[in-house]
Amino acid sequence: MVRVACLGVLILINFVFQTTVLVRFSILGVSPDTAVVFIVCYGILRGDVEGAIFGFFVGLMHDVFGADFVGIHAMFGLLAGYVAGKPFKDYFKDNYVLPFSIVVGVVFVYQIMMFFVAFLFRGQLDFLFYFRTIVLPKTIYTALFSLPLYGMLFILNAKLESYEDDRRNFFK
Known about the structure:
Layout: H1 2-24, H2 34-46, H3 48-64, H4 72-85, H5 97-119, H6 127-170
Helix pairs in contact: 1-3, 2-3, 2-4, 2-5, 2-6, 3-4, 4-5, 5-6
């Protein structure tokens, strides 16, 4: 229950931070997508199922409060959390290189999928323009946020796991 409350607060803080503060610091008209960073990092730390659930709720919040197509970000968040958590059950969680590279890959694919949904359905077919002006800058800008956010989420996850272990041992 404590984990759910902490994650709910984290989702809310990230949403407010991303839609208010980070918009002011946009570079070339692009702001970082910290929600995807949290989804990927949480999927890596907790596994595919929890990553998918977390990604769904992060994406759903984005859909409800400002997306053109409701459900698209929830579906992409679910997929990103699942893919990020699937192959990393037996790797060292304190390795920061792997989350960085996974974030870069997932943000890149996420933005290309958004092109197909958001722009192709509107009849805008200039993929090279979208790639040059949105995909590459957003991928690079978001990657810069991946290391500090992964470190923060790693520490939060360790504290929550310690608390959960203490609670389990208390009732034995």
